[in-house]
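To the team - adenosine-5'-tetraphosphate complex, inputs and output below.
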Amino acid sequence: MPRLSAITPSGPAHLGNYLGAVRRWAREGAPGDLYFVSDLHGMTGAYHPQRLRHRTRELLALLVASGIDPDRVFVQSDLLPQLGPLTWVLECTCSFGEAARMTQFKEKSATRELVETPVRVGLFTYPVLMAADILLQGADEVPVGEDQAQHVELARALARRFNSTFGDALVVPRAVTPPAAARVRDLSDPARKMDKSAVDAAGVLFVMDEPDLLRRKVRRAVTDGLGRVEYRPAEQPGVANLLEVLAACTGRDVREIAEGFSSYGRLKEAVAEAVVEELRPVRERTRELLDDQPELDRVRRRGAELASERGAHRLSTVLRLAGVG
Ligand code: AQP
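Output:
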């Protein structure tokens, strides 16, 4: 049974997405695992259509360039003909109160109301679409962080309810905690995680940034006035973040690394070079794929075909049991 993971094109992929997710998927994924670019989830707030399309392609290329089996990768919107009806069936299985309990909606809608009105219904219902993503593919495990665990619980509840009300059709998924990975922080504000949709990109190292830009961003990383290279995340969050990045890129122990540096300047140089070398091959392969449109289109079509084949029988059973279609 597959595990299902996704990445949303809410911005260009950054070093955190790469070290914390994509690289791990490529290195540690089991042969049956599935990955998708969740472009429909990127529409729940204000967005720019061309930018969404471009970032979706770029993320698809990145996943394949990172070494994930292209047959296990797809773009969410390519499954709209199946996700649409399944989402509707699930929305008619989900109570309003259940959807309204999603804490991520409460948090995001509160923030968005301040900067952008109105808050979209899509932001409210997207956990049901996420349930459809999971249930269509028959994924039994969904590796997610704490912020998404409640959504997987919803998918689990909806699958159970559908099965017990209408008949067995859906695999009941569960959230699993992914193995601990680097949590990369914003270089300009180490109190925050590195974020695709950060308003200020100065502290975000994007996978597709040119080496010189990466170096400049690392050189400007916020540290502190203590002048001591030690791994003390609470007292020296900026320095600790740089050390963690270096550890994740080199596979070395973070405390051991700290002992080798006496100045922030030297540490930053080493971090910059390690990041440049870590990202260089994947950036170059992503670029090659983006430049080879027929090949990327072929990969995308095949991924979509395989993913929709995986879901076709399940969807028709669901519709039959639900009395429609
Ligand atoms: N800073 C990070 N460090 C380590 N891992 C990270 N991930 C995200 N940020 C970091 C991991 O990347 C995967 C895909 O994430 P997503 O598309 O669901 O985006 P997100 O978690 O909401 O965070 P982003 O990338 O910063 O995007 P936005 O701007 O949309 O919030 C996940 O496995 C995530 O853990």
